[in-house]
Specification:
It is built from 11 helices and 11 strands. The chain is α/β, with parallel strands linked by helices and about 325 residues long. The strands form 2 sheets. The chain has a 7-stranded parallel beta sheet with strand order 7-6-5-10-8-11-9, with helices on both faces. It has helices at about 25-30, 45-65, 80-85, 105-115, 125-135, 155-165, 180-190, 210-215, 230-240, 280-285, 300-315; strands at about 75, 95-100, 120-125, 140-145, 170-175, 195-200, 225, 245, 255, 265-270, 285-290.
Length: about 325
């Protein structure tokens, strides 16, 4: 009969006994969880799956490019660095956000800027995956993937100038290893109407995220060419009728006395410490010095290039 079980201590009712308390679960359940994240960051959402698939294809393409002599995509790590790169519109393909990351102002701004950019994919990834990607760097839950920069050929710079009916104004960098100096030169070339910058392939700064940031966005419209051999590239310019002017502290001509800046010219800038290398210095048609009445011994590459470019722009105007 019902309620007449032979097993002792058997529960015969579904009614629960007295409860001590919820342990605060109900109170925490009423707390706000913040704004709804973008669809690309919601686990299982169709847009997140599509973004992840597209990012994997892009990453796979960059890995395949290694065999063709291409460098892998660059990673910008850390909350401040990522936000600064996005503010300066450094070209990027993917923003990786750590799962369950503390959602502070920098994380929210990074996600917002990436969304406004339109071409940056948002991907949520577990911390071990970001640790593996960054090889243990302190990424703070934010990683920005920057694609390889597409360099021009040195001859493209003169060809573009001649096509526009203008005399080429180009800066070549010899032994400049600081990307910030490269970015500063790109910015000066853009400001004073130059046609591009040439850098060597080896032992020289390239267009990294740091160079992009220093250029303040001007790298998007000022081409940077890479030469397998800088001396040969300068000789090729000479054959095309372009004067090669090297900056040197012991130059034979002062900047105010230089008469070739209003024509086709390549300005060669060496490092602040070593100056021009021997072969490059011997290739130059003329070596010019910048007067410094204040007594300073030298200027860094970015400042020196800016001074000569200003003088060239003044004469051409």
């Amino acid at each position: 009969m019902a309620g007449n079980s032979q097993r002792p201590n058997r529960r015969t009712s579904n009614k629960k006994g007295a409860q001590v308390g919820s342990g605060g679960k109900r109170r925490r359940g009423l707390e706000g969880k913040g704004p709804t994240p973008p669809a690309e960051m919601r686990k299982g959402h169709a847009k997140q799956r599509a973004a992840q698939a597209k990012a994997r294809r892009a990453q796979g393409g960059s890995q395949r490019g290694k065999g063709a002599g291409k460098s892998p995509a660059e990673l910008v790590v850390g909350r401040n660095s990522v936000v600064e790169a996005l503010r300066e519109q450094v070209p990027a393909t993917t923003l990786y956000v750590q799962q369950f990351v503390d959602n502070d102002d920098r994380v929210r701004e990074a996600v917002r800027l990436a969304g406004e950019h339109g071409g940056i994919h948002l991907m949520e990834a577990p911390k071990p995956e970001l640790d593996r990607m960054t090889k243990g760097l302190h990424h703070q839950g934010l990683v920005l993937q920057v694609p390889e920069y597409e360099y021009a050929h040195p001859d493209d710079l003169t060809a573009a100038a001649f096509d526009e009916g203008e005399d080429p104004l180009i800066v070549a960098l010899d032994g400049i290893t600081d990307p910030r100096n490269l970015g500063a030169v790109v910015r000066s070339v853009s400001a004073f109407g130059g046609h591009g910058v040439v850098v060597p392939e080896r032992r020289a700064a390239g267009m990294t995220a740091g160079a992009w940031k220093t250029s303040a966005g001007t790298a998007a419209r000022t081409p940077v060419a890479r030469a397998a051999n800088l001396t040969r590239a300068l000789e090729s310019y000479q054959k095309a009728g372009v004067m090669v002017v090297g900056l040197a502290a012991d130059g034979d001509v002062g900047l105010t006395e230089l008469e070739v800046l209003d024509g086709p010219v390549v300005i060669v800038v060496g490092s602040e410490g070593k100056g021009l290398s021997r072969l490059v210095g011997e290739t130059c048609d003329v070596r010019v010095r910048i007067p410094m009445p204040g007594g300073a011994e030298s200027l860094n590459a970015g400042v020196a290039a800016g001074v000569v470019l200003y003088e060239a722009a003044r004469r051409r105007s």
